[in-house]
Amino acid sequence: MGVIHGEEMVLNIGPQHPSTHGVLRLKVKTDGEVVSDIYPVIGYLHRSFEKHCENVTYEQVVPYTDRCDYIASMNNNLGYAVTVEELMGIEVPEKVEYIRIIVAEFNRIASHLLALGTYGLDVGAFTPFLYMFRDRERILDMFEMVCGARLLYNYIWVGGVSHDLPKGFVETAYQFLDYFEPQVTEYNNLLTYNKIFVERTADVGVLPPDVAINYGVTGPNLRASGVKWDIRKDEPYSIYDKFDFDVPVGQGELGTIGDCWDRYWVRMREIEESVKILRQALKGLPKDGDVHQAIPKKIRPPKGSIYKRTESPRGDLAYYITSDGKPKPYRLKMRSPAFTSLSVLNKISKGWMLSDVIAILGSLDIVLGEIDR
Amino acid sequence: MIDDRDKLIAEAVEKGLQGDMDTINGIEDRVIRSKAKAALHKAKKVAKESGTGIEDSKEETASPVDENQSPNQIVFAYLEKKIPGSVIVQEGDLEECIYVNPSSWEAVSKLLRNDEILQFDSLQCITGIDIGEGILESRYNFHSMSLRHTIEIRIPVSIDNPKIYSIEQIWRIGDWFEREVYDMVGIIFEGHRNLKRMLLPDDWEGFPLRKDYETQQTYHGIAIPKVKEEWE
Amino acid sequence: MTVDLLYDWLNETIPFLSGNDLLLLFAILIPALMLFLVIAVNAIVLVYAERKVSAFMQDRVGPMGQGVGLHAGKWGMLQTIADALKLISKEDIIPKLADRKLFIMAPFIIFVGAFIAVIALPFGESLIVADMNIGIFYILAVSSFGVIGLILAGWSSNNKWSLYGGMRSAAQIISYEIPAGLSLVTVIMLTGTLSMQGIIQYQSGGIFDWIVFSSPFSFIAFIIYFIAGIAETNRTPFDIPEAESELVGGFHTEYSGMRWSFFFLSEYANMLVVNGVAVTAFLGGWQSPISGYFNTAGWGIFWFISKILVLVFVMMWVRWTFPRLRVDQLMDICWKYLLPIALMNIFGVGLWTLIFG
Known about the structure:
The structure holds 3 protein chains of 3 kinds. Chain A is of the alpha+beta class. Chain A has 15 helices and 8 strands. In chain A, helix 2 runs antiparallel to helix 3, helix 4 runs antiparallel to helix 14 and helix 6 packs antiparallel against helix 11. Chain C folds into 2 domains: 88 residues, no CATH class; 267 residues, no CATH class. Chain C is globular and about 60 Å long. Chain C starts with a helix and ends with a helix. Chains A and B meet through helix 1, helix 8, strand 6, strand 7 and strand 8 of A and strand 3 and helix 7 of B.
């Protein structure tokens, strides 16, 4: 008896497809349901971020960073501000540092909620998505309170922040945290430990640690593979060294270390850790202080280059800035974590089924704005 | 607490002298680990001066444990020793980076990845840059997940013949990074198996991040708006 | 209200046409129109219910109309009608490269499959279009008819997503027919009849005379039938043929407007049929749960409809709670779990009747 071989079919997923999280296009070779090769085509959302940056001043770059990873704009702002500050040697007041940590961690929660919710959607669970969006909405309301914007904040500037925290923010934040903490249990009951969800994600798309490192995968995806690497902990920037929090890594609790479920679960645990940081930050937030005090009149970093990494919700977000002493960056390169995460897709999803490819893609949590820049 | 720490360091140093670096690298706390490494370094020096133990002098001169030196300086010296002529001495300090000769990049990259002391298993970023005067640079930021140190390497090439050895098969992420650099500044990576444009369309003309780049007038009949000069 | 009864009644009331074939045509058309009405109303009600149920499960309010002017009525009651109007007025797009004839035919085949199954559903003691002596067998047979439509739709669209959807649904529906059929075999073994009314008559009495409670095996049979029913109606967690996040729209990706809404209509009609059979075979059909009370013809309709609606609610509940299975897991559940259990179940019911019957 011979084995029957069908012809391979090339399937074009995207750029308009419900589960590509933006305008990603995947050229997929399939043999029936089984996928034999994947070739991601990116660049549909390329907006010449780096070219633009060479034509605007350092202050004007901040709104552009918003638009890169539009799900976690605060973290992008923070990464840029920290980089330029280090290049210029600016010390920012303690209050500003605290405010930055608070908004960045809130944004991390919001970003993870979106990632987990849409991941549920990718595997077909609709309701958890809306539950998580409901809670994300409250965080966006708080950001609206802080800076008037709900998605693209332009809040963290070089040397400070655009506005001081409004009256009543701290109380609102505490209220939210008190409300939010029990919600995590609800998500776990509804989705995390759901039998079908576990069947769909555990042991699927296993990313071994050495492959992850070789492909430059960082952030929750790398930690899910069991590598304890979190820049907030290992190379603290801003004032992250003041806070006490854990770095969750994948344990392979319901499958193999580094499977889709681990990547999901690490994000869920990180939400809890962010809540921990937020409680400490809100407690330590200095009452007085001017948030505009350290903002330089003119940003002209000395000649030189800097490569500075920060931990965005998606991984190591780094800016490489070369300055020639003029008010505009000579060269600004953004090292985006989603870019590297996506590059591993082909490696880990060969041989899985079409439905699994969607699940694996979702578990990598990519944002196309950041990949294409 | 402090006693514990001293004990831990002493233990790790002892193991290290016997050639077992895992104990030291396994220490979780960053501060203790670096202290232990410094102590080990000292102990080795003492051992060498007194003429006992440790014959492995290579590890001593180049191991990235000396707290007084930046990783760049250590790696610079190490590379110079291992592959003479591979690094270019430039004026200015080594705080920022190491300049590597394009012709020896192939050997250097393999050394960086596989050498026990360097172990740069993670390629963080490749930045292509046009530094003017007809020179393009490819700048690599390396990080070691196992040893937790970072360096930056720069490879200058002439704009007329911008060819650099591709490290795509050593660090797989180099595949996409190199394609992006090619896309933006037009450095050609020799040996890359699929060197096509990454973000821009395949039929785009020119390399946008070169300083002498001129935008196309039209693209498939679509007029391209000019970037405003001196936008303040 | 079978066709025969209607024909006799027409013969008596219109004496001058007595014996004319025209009357037979009327006798067939009247119930057909009424059934079409039932299916349409069913779809409208269920779509509205689905929106509201999902909304309440997801911490939303769902469709709401407020204030003056054009809106969807109080509590959004008119939302489905507005949707239907929108669908009717939408452009009918047929892709250039589609197989035109099959493309047009497919939604109607699916609809016909659902429609002709409804005629054997007993809405009341005398309210059944055709009380065949092989009623339950007939429903099982014609409800697989729709799958031809699904494959046609998937194939003729000339779209890879549609093709995937069509192939998946063919595999799925044909597989799940088997456990569904086998679990109904237990009912036939107990009642000794294939007639829908006969099965219901067997269950007369109170709630404990219903087949679902008559033995543990029949309860298992009910669960198996219900799971298979969810799969046959292509609903989450078995909605892989139209899996939105994977296949965009599955077999109906290329359809629009009224043609698309026929898929929708038949999905809800299928729900009616599947749950109608479940109610008939396991839950006493139109019988009242309390022996001797509320057992008039009017109450019969009420019981039948409300039992169906309870099961439909459970289906919605499941849909809005669970993620979707993968295609191989779906087949695993059918062939490795449901099928052996259903076979054992037949054996169990046999033993049970032998010992206690």
